[in-house]
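REQUEST FORM: STRUCTURE PREDICTION
Request ID: SP-0412
Submitted by: Lab K.M.
Chain count: 1
Length (residues): 238
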Amino acid sequence: MVTNVYSYPSYRSYSKATSGIFSALLLAFICLIVGGMFLGFGVQAINQANSSEAAKYSDVIYGTCISNDYEYSYEDQASFYYTTYSYTVNGRTYQSKSQIGWDYPEDVGDRVEIRYLKSDPTFIIENEYYEDEIDSGNSKYIMLAIGIVALVIVVASVIFALVSLKKAKTAEAALDKEVLASNAQQSNSNGSAQSSGQNGDVFDMNEFKKDATKKCEYCGSTYSAKLDKCPNCGASNR
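STATUS: Completed
RESULT:
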């Protein structure tokens, strides 16, 4: 007996639950890979920032722009502006030129975030350059955040998959009951139909013998008892 499970009410719940399991596990797998990569890159960038060139510089301080020196680089075929700042370190005031050249000069009197070498307070750079080129800026924290979010999605997806698995088992049990009940009902219906057919079509041998054939009294041929005349000689045999 072929059973079409797609027509049962519980099949929709079962199909939805099993699809949810597959989708959740696939999402968890993708996020696990992506999250692991970003988390690894973020941690590595932070470690490098703490133990490499970035660690040689001080925390951010403010310097006041007092002048700009214009210089042309024949190597780069471009002109740059080097700003001189006035700033204070440990109570001592310095006036030093930045080691970084920019396309545009700073406005005299502007306060700018700068950093100096811990070993040499006269060696200064703008904090903007430090974050972009030395410390990788906020990118390391962004990568770390993406990795953490991805791992949170992994945990949520696994929980969703477990809940869907429980729903799938419940729906599967209900579907089995519906299939068994339907099969039993169909079997009972078929059995009743067969019994009715056997009781209503009782074969009467006497009736068959009576109506089967008869013999012509004149020519002796045999023909159907339902005919009034012999088809051979045309005689009437009643």
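NOTES: The mean pLDDT is 81.
Reviewed by: T.R.
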